[in-house]
Amino acid sequence: GERVPAPPGAGLMACARSGERCRLSSPPQDAVLFQIGEAAQVLSGGALVATPHAVSPGEISGASRESFALFVEPGWDEPLCVPEDSSLEAVLAPDDARGDIIPPLRTRLKSVPVAFAKFLSDSIKEYY
To answer: Residue 57 and residue 17: Cα distance in Å, rounded?
Structure first.
């Protein structure tokens, strides 16, 4: 197929650590993007921080956006634990600046360790 420019207003939106919503520039055609999720935030003790993000379709109809997402996640029964040299508060603190963008991690992760499946189920309930 032929690559076409994005329509006005379309693109990847992300939330900066400050809470500011930012439009990201298009990556090079041969780039691979990585998104750090909340499981990595928990397992790293808050050293890695999940980035809230969304794709805006822009001001066009009748077009589709194609992408391939590959999710790498812990096993369903794998416990999410905070490293011994960190704390649950260190994991939760980065979310405090995000405001109303996503359901706060504090409402979905009440204690650790917790099975990944339970954390995921609790998160889905908060979204839907």
So the answer is: 24
As a whole number of angstroms, the distance between CA 56 and CA 65 comes to 10
Question: Tens digits of per-residue pLDDT, 32-59?
Answer: 888 889 999 999 999 999 888 888 878 8
HSE of 60 in the Cβ direction (CA atoms, 13 Å)? Answer: 15
| Residue closest to 95 by CA, chosen among 30, 31, 34, 42 | 42
Chain centroid offset of residue 69 CA: 13
User: What's the pTM value of the predicted model, to 2 decimals?
Assistant: 0.80
Task: Classify 88 as helix, strand or coil.
Answer: helix
What is the token pair recorded at 91? 């994991």
- Dig out the tokens for 50 from the structure: 């999940």
CB half-sphere exposure, 83, CA atoms < 13 A: 12
